[in-house]
Specification:
Helices cover about 70% and strands about 0% of the residues. The protein is mainly α and about 500 residues long. The protein is globular and about 65 Å long. The protein has a single domain, classed as Up-down Bundle (Amino acid/polyamine transporter I), CATH 1.20.1740.10.
Length: about 500
């Protein structure tokens, strides 16, 4: 009679505090970037593609949609507001550049937070990125419809009726143009990342030329008196304008979501992030200066499709207005394409870690694209853009982005202390001053946003924490391997 060996003792339960603070080591993040149960992404993008992705995701939103809202808040100081918002973005961009070169993973700041601050902080960061990318795509798609109407009016003398170009609550039944642009972007993304990058590069060229055309026309109507006084609403107005315009810089981090599809991420990601932000900031300031110089700032109140109206007032004629409107249509479509791309890659990384369902991490073997992920995100965002008046959600997008950027700055400080031996293709200059200043400025910009924005943000965070408690915490891949997962980088 053989004796049955005693059963192995059950593993002790992992304390809740350890679950919430468990970290995913940098080495494991890098290793996972080259493997996965659902398949791997393909490394096909060079520094040019990556730069164009960042420019495509950034350039257009603030100039073509938000400028008309920021000028009444800041006055002619909107030019300074763009500079201040750009400085805030630059400080965070330096931190992004260091971490993107170290951790070439698709998760962007979500992955960086996982390696430094723990799982709960990573989830919160990822949830903020879902707000940043998903809702901003919908917000930008709504603005696209305004310029479609400007283009149709300039070329054909007709417009889409409000009933079919505005969502419920804004005077319409269904925003058809917003639905169309998201669906088109989804179809392009389904073809593959290389094809998507080529389409985006062509659209970036078109929108840069459109903005340069605007400047050439608007500066012919420039009046120095329109800039005086420069701060009619004080420094508070300038700061509030910067907080609103930070929405314009959402997207420069899109290149970091392509970490697993870059051919040489350690070298190319830092270059792409910093180069794209520099180009975008110069163009934003140039166009803003031309705009407020050509049109008195008080006349921006309630102005939609502001640049097209300024060109018309400057005597540009219907042909120039049509070309500018075409540039705006292409520009905003490019933002939709690249930001939607970033949203899909964030969910891909979170799914691979088990924090969201595995559906989002499955890669199509033929195209190298997370197909189901792309379809689900495209469907959700298209319906959101077509049927929901976004309003304060645009500002909520800014506050979510600022929070994620603050975490990236903190992540640089943590990794500098805990893992100083890791190779860094790019190092933030003047650390720790620059990351600390970046985090503090992000917090300052957050405090400049209104109470209603904070209410939306707190509600979004509460929903995210409930989802993490109900699903993510128990399905985390680190939860499944507690013996090796609860890594503490002291």
């Amino acid at each position: 009679m053989t004796s049955t060996p005693p059963a192995a003792p059950a593993a002790p339960p992992v304390p809740l505090r350890t679950q919430l603070t468990r970290r995913k080591p940098v080495e494991r993040l890098v290793a996972d970037a080259g493997a996965g149960d659902g398949g791997r992404l393909r490394r096909t993008l060079g520094v040019g593609h990556l730069t164009m992705i960042s420019i495509g995701a950034t350039l257009g939103t603030g100039i073509f949609v938000v400028l008309g809202e920021a000028v009444p808040v800041a006055g002619p100081a909107v030019v300074v507001s763009f500079v201040l918002a750009g400085v805030i973005a630059l400080l965070s961009a330096l931190s992004y550049a260091e971490l993107a070169g170290m951790i070439p993973a698709a998760g962007s700041s979500y992955s960086y937070s996982y390696a430094t601050l723990g799982e709960l902080a990573a989830w919160v960061c990822g949830w903020c990125l879902i707000l940043e990318y998903g809702v901003s795509v919908a917000a930008v798609a709504v603005g696209w419809g305004q310029y479609v109407n400007e283009l149709l009016d300039a070329v054909l003398g007709v417009t889409i009726p409000d009933a079919w170009s505005q969502p419920p609550g804004d005077g319409g039944h269904f925003n058809l143009p917003a639905l169309v642009v998201v669906v088109l972007a989804t179809l392009v993304l389904l073809r593959g990342v290389t094809e998507s990058a080529r389409v985006n590069a062509a659209m970036v060229v078109v929108k840069v030329l459109a903005l340069l055309l605007f400047c050439a026309v608007a500066f012919t109507a420039f009046r120095a008196g329109n800039l005086s006084p420069l701060f009619p609403l004080g420094l508070a107005g300038m700061s509030s304008g910067a907080a609103t315009l930070f929405f314009s810089y959402i997207g420069f981090d899109a290149a970091s979501t392509a970490g697993e599809e870059a051919r040489d991420p350690q070298r190319d990601l830092p270059r792409a992030i910093l180069l794209s932000l520099g180009i975008v900031t110069v163009l934003y300031c140039l166009v803003a200066l031309a705009a407020v110089g050509a049109l008195p700032w008080r006349q921006f109140e309630g102005t939609e499709a502001a640049l097209a109206r300024i060109v018309d007032g400057a005597g540009g004629g219907s042909v120039v207005v049509g070309l500018l409107s075409l540039g705006a249509v292409v520009a905003i479509a490019s933002v939709v394409l690249t930001v939607l791309y970033g949203q899909i890659r964030i969910l891909f990384a979170m799914s691979r870690d088990g924090l969201v369902p595995p559906l989002f991490a499955r890669v199509d073997r033929r195209t190298g694209v997370p197909r189901a992920n792309t379809l689900v995100v495209g469907l959700f965002v298209s319906l959101l853009a077509a049927s929901v008046p976004l309003g304060e959600l645009a500002n909520a997008t800014s506050i979510g982005t600022l929070f994620a950027f603050a975490l990236v700055n903190v992540a640089v400080l943590v990794l500098r202390r805990t893992r100083p031996e890791l190779p860094r293709a790019f190092r933030v200059p003047f650390a720790p001053v620059v990351p600390v200043l970046g985090a503090l400025l992000c917090g300052y910009a957050m405090l400049s946003l209104g109470t209603s924005t904070w209410i939306v943000f707190v509600g979004w965070m509460a929903l995210g924490l409930a989802l993490y408690a109900g699903y993510g915490r128990h399905h985390s891949r680190l939860h499944a391997t507690p013996a090796t997962a609860a890594v503490r980088q002291e």
